[in-house]
Amino acid sequence: ISLENGVITRSGGAPQLRLLSVGATGNLSLDGITASGGSLSSSDNAGAVFNDGGTLNVRNSTVTNNSAGFGGAFYNSGATATMLLADSQFTNNSASQNGGLMMNDSGTVTISRSTVSGNSSTGIAGNGAIYNFEADLDLIDSTFSGNTATSVGAVQNFAGTVRIANSVFAG
Questions:
Q1: CA-based Rg of the chain, rounded to a whole angstrom?
Q2: Are β-strands 74-77 and 62-64 bridged in parallel, bridged antiparallel, or unpaired?
Q3: CA pair distance 7, 112, nearest whole angstrom
């Protein structure tokens, strides 16, 4: 499925919900999309998009103001889960546990030519932007700034691989 040039927003008065989900054989491309307002409880994953073993490509988009327990905006789950985030803005997402922007759990994520800012986590061992758990993460030509947490502000890696090229990390 491809979605282009639109807005996906949960109204503040609506019940808690995740905006989108990708199944194990799914393929979702978002281009020129603004995704905001996805909100789930502290025990749930991904306020914006849960990728459960499929393929997610986000380009030229803004993902902002989403919240969940793990992966405020995105949760990438499983060895076959792949995610490309390119030429986009990822701002002001929050997690009450880990990964204000994203939790990458055993999958593969590439963030390229993007801005990741103002994401936060309030969990005891939380991290502001990305929690990479036994997964592969590539950060290319991107800027990380103003991400906050109780533990690590930008990227926390646990038994995974993180490759960083031509990227900026700032308070």
A1: 14
A2: unpaired
A3: 22
Helix (H, G, I), strand (E, B) or coil at 119: coil
Residue type, 27: N
Residue pair 66/91 in contact by the 8 Å Cβ criterion: no
The DSSP-derived string for 18-75 is -SEEE-TT-EEEEEEEEEE--B--TTSB-SSEEEESSEEEEES-EEES-EEEE-SSEE
13's CB contacts (< 8 A; 6+ apart) are none
Strands 62-64 and 89-91: parallel
End-to-end CA distance of the chain: 37
pTM: 0.96
Contact call for residues 22 and 55 (beta carbons, < 8 A): yes
| Sign of the alpha-carbon dihedral angle for 122, 127, 129, 135 | negative
Q: Could you read off the pLDDT tens digit of each residue along the chain, which spans 171 residues?
A: 999 999 999 988 889 999 999 999 999 999 999 999 999 999 999 999 999 999 999 999 999 999 999 999 999 999 999 999 999 999 999 999 999 999 999 999 999 999 999 999 998 877 889 999 999 999 999 999 999 998 888 999 999 999 999 999 998
